[in-house]
User: Which sequence fits this backbone?
């Protein structure tokens, strides 16, 4: 019966962070992934922004991915602890054309790991995105070096991405969600968790507004 199959459907709500230096393309990646849009003219994110992607993962699994676009200029400030709360996965983004943004990746990862953990105490799954690969010089990212960097810093893996040309954005997201689901197997999010995230949003919105100059 059709009704029976509906009742067996598992629904998840996953909070995923998108962090990294100012101007690396975090907002562009999210807009491409969620809305299939790209613009050269996004304004710098102030504080934090949100986007929701609903994924029919398989016939019995619905995933709601709540993407938190955290401003690069937050730079490990006090508010990031509030932003990171209850996240179950993260993308750390750098710009392949600006070496300084890669140099900052380890700091962002360390900050992430120090402020949020899974229920079992492990770091949340995180994936490194080498963004703007449409602009890179040939062989600017050495695969072996990047693989080694990910092992040393605790990333699940890395992807060269381009929000502009829609390269590897969906693939990177799928890879991260697979790992989040592996951690969360058989434990669908309760409604109360969803409410708690909504409350977090309201807290962040209120604190962000009060912090504006």
Assistant:
């Amino acid at each position: 019966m059709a009704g029976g199959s509906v009742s067996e459907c598992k629904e998840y709500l996953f909070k995923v962070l998108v962090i990294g230096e100012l101007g690396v393309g975090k907002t562009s990646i999210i807009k491409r992934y969620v809305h299939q849009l790209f613009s050269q003219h996004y304004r710098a994110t102030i504080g934090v922004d949100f986007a929701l992607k609903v994924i029919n993962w398989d016939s019995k699994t619905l995933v709601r991915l709540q993407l938190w676009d955290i401003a690069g200029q937050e730079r490990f400030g006090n508010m990031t602890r509030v932003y990171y709360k209850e996240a179950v996965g993260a993308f750390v983004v750098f710009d392949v054309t600006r070496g300084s943004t890669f140099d900052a990746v380890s700091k962002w990862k360390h900050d992430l790991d120090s402020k949020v953990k899974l229920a079992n105490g492990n770091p949340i799954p995180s994936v490194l995105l080498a963004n703007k690969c449409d602009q890179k010089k040939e062989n600017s990212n050495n695969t072996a070096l990047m693989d080694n960097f990910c092992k040393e810093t605790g990333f699940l893996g890395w992807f060269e991405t381009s929000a502009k040309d829609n390269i590897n954005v969906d693939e990177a997201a799928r890879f991260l969600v697979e790992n989040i689901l592996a951690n969360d197997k058989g434990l669908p999010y309760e409604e109360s968790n969803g409410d708690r995230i909504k409350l977090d949003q309201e807290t962040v919105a209120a604190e962000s507004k009060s912090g504006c100059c």
About this structure: The chain is about 40% helix and 25% strand. The two ends are 58 Å apart (CA to CA). The chain has one domain: 10-136+149-185.
